[in-house]
Amino acid sequence: MNNNINAASKDTAYSWQNPKTLLTLIAIALPIAFASWQALLNNFAIEKAAFTGAEIGLLQSVREIPGFLAFTAVFVLLFIREQKFMMLSLVMLTVGVAITGFFPSLAGLLCTTLLMSIGFHYLETLKQSLSLQWLTKEEAPEVLGKLISVGALSALITYGVLWVLLEQFQLDFRWVYLIAGSASLCIVIFMWIAFPTFESKTIQNKKLILRKRYWLYYALVFMSGARRQIFVVFAGFLMVEKFGYSAADITLLFLINYAFNWLFAKRIGRLIGVIGERKALTFEYIGLILVFAGYALVENEILAAGLYVVDHLFFALALAIKTYFQKIADPADMASTAGVSFTISHIAAVVIPVSFGLLWLVSPASVFFAGAAMAAVSLILAMYIPNHPTEGNEVRTQTRQTA
Question: Which of 14, 89, 141, 390 could disulfide-link 272, Cβ–Cβ 3.0 to 4.6 Å?
Fold first, then answer.
């Protein structure tokens, strides 16, 4: 990666050496490592480390600390290029996943999770920044949807392999984690060697930036981060603790989830480009209110699984927040704001897992009713997105209802 090539240039040695291909390979590599870690975590924590809701909440809070510190990425960029930093982050993620199974204790899981999470959150921050820099506003919704679809297919294959390793070969957790992390690391090494450095059209600000006109974007990101924790931390835990789902059962659930994302994510991205961000997010948040209320009341394991699948499908609609920001932002703010937005999204994420883990011990239903309330707040915020957001037209007001 010694050669520098403009992101918009087609004068690469081979036609496949372009930013979209690089983003596609990242979309493949990321789920192999992270989806494996996520699918196995609850069963590994309960079966091997004897976790309760309190410990899993603590672990998830520690996992979110690097997300809270994602704003520091902009300072690291003073010394290293975004693309190379993104590759190093992916290395940390894959190594953290690979060694997870060798440390089945609270202290061990806290350490391996922290390493994995530092890589994951820096990677997500930089991937968002570079995606919005490399893609045009017109193509971004569909291409981002396509990347979600590619990632879903990668996760789909990964979960199929996980199910075979767990059910047919009955491998111990440590070897499954090692295989997943190592496979993803091999893809990272290939990307590092095969791709040049792509230059962005706009030089990025290398300092923290908070702009008053981005307030709605910040609010949407904050609520999304808070609400997402209910799904990431407690929905899967509900399946294992209340309904007795095994690691193989959870893997099958994820197979279904990603099959739907593979089939529909690209179409969802294209739909967002047609109907606009406000309508897309309105639909998402109304659906999530119903889903979270369903989690609180469900007593049937099949219905619970159905809610889990629908909940996951709504994630694809969340890319509308990114495309909304791309339309209203100064192009030079992408890198800085990506880090700031991840920090904002993790303010609540650092607190919610551990505090709601204690609430879980008293009333699991209350955790999900709180999630429904968060979705309702997000719905109100979505009403302020203009039909055609641009720089200078960031918020829909009473005097500009058709904006």
Answer: 141
- Tokens of residue 156, six digits: 């789909």
Per-residue confidence (pLDDT) for residue 159, from 0 to 100: 81
Could you give the CA distance from residue 77 to residue 40 in angstroms, rounded to a whole number? 33
Return the CATH architecture of domain 4-400. Answer: Up-down Bundle (1.20)
Q: What are phi and psi of 4, to 5 degrees?
A: -105, 125
Q: How far is residue 132 from each of residues 143, 200, 219, measured CA to CA in Å?
A: 11, 10, 20
In angstroms, the Cα distances linking 274 to 57, 150, 183, 277 are 39, 21, 37, 9
Is the separation of the CB atoms in 238 and 295 below 8 Å?
Answer: yes
pTM of this prediction? 0.74
β-sheet bridge partners, residue 199: 6
For 199, the enclosing helix (H) or strand (E) is: strand 197-199
Note the pLDDT tens digit of each residue in 73-97: 888 888 888 899 999 999 999 999 9
Name residues whose C-beta falls within 8 Å of residue 14's C-beta, 6 or more positions apart in sequence. Answer: none
Q: Which residues, other chains included, contact 365 with Cβ-Cβ below 8 Å and sequence gap of 6+?
A: 296, 297
pLDDT band at 4 (very low <50, low <70, confident <90, very high): low
Calpha distance 92→96 (Å, rounded): 6
